[in-house]
Amino acid sequence: MCVSSSLSSICILRLSAIGDVCHAVSAVQAIQRAHPEAKITWVIGKIEAMLLQGMPGIEFVVFDKKQGKAAFKALKQRFKGHKFDVLLHMQVALRANLVARVIPAKRKIGFDKSRSKELHSLFINDRIAPQAEPHVLEGFQNFARAIGASCGEPTWQMPYEAHHQQQASQLLPEGKVFVISPAASKAERNWMPERYAELAEYAAEQGFKVVITGGPTQLEQALAAKIVSYCQVEVTNLVGKTDLKTLLCVLQQAKLVLAPDTGPAHMAVTVGTPVIGLYAHSNPARTGPYLYQQYVVEVYHQNLQAQRGKSAQQLPWGTRVKGTELMQQISTQMVKSMFDKVVAEQGL
User: Fold this and answer.
1) Whole-prediction pTM
2) Does 137 have pLDDT greater than 70?
3) What domains can be seen in the chain, in order of their start residue?
């Protein structure tokens, strides 16, 4: 265990994805509180940096995976002649392991053996403590604890400016806003557009203004267009119309968010907006919206039992289930019931 005065330079390695870097922020900010004099450098992906750029006290070094070998060469050159006191290697993917190889550090802390994969063990010389059935965020907290930081209930100070808030306000309709962020990174994790539309209509009946958010990809634009086409109520479609920081402010100004396993769900958590998460393929106890896991609607556990004949506790933690039709098992009535619960409990 390192004491606060012993570290002058700390490198964080977590390249992706949006949800995971949101989880990591609370741990990194706990490290800042424990080591206020240390210089902290975060090696991060290009898109993820767009969300976090401007975070006080953090120097971001962008690793653009699309540059291939040139990205590794640039990183090696960037750190030439430098040696960090510690590297917190928070990602087990092979690309991240190869990135860790070119980051010079006296101590390279990685995941414990149960979570180590893709040759992760070859690129570290120390490990975080094992954890029983941790959420991804709790895994990151153990990196902070490994260098003397104290972690309790997570908090976030997300970086955005007044103009991002103003732009969000201008884009949003007046009144209490219900945001649907419908698209995950894989289409099979998305709910059906007609069911999103039914929830939009249900929310509108209760006085909410419905807003759809998302990025500029063809998949996201097409899904949003289908939802709007099914809706019999007015919907504000912001898909592809916000940068990440403005989207963060949209989520902050909303009263409630509905989303599958996707980055904006975790962005909403960082700004204190309740989230109804829709989960079929991954365990929400590991990857769900951290502060609002009680509001998850899931069919993961029943499918895990059906496919593997065992519970989540009997299998390696984080075991996924497979199938392109699993999200269809989440009925609109299940989500409406959860919507009612959130509205009542949150006083919406």
Assistant:
1) 0.96
2) yes
3) 4-146 (3.40.50.2000), 162-346 (3.40.50.2000)
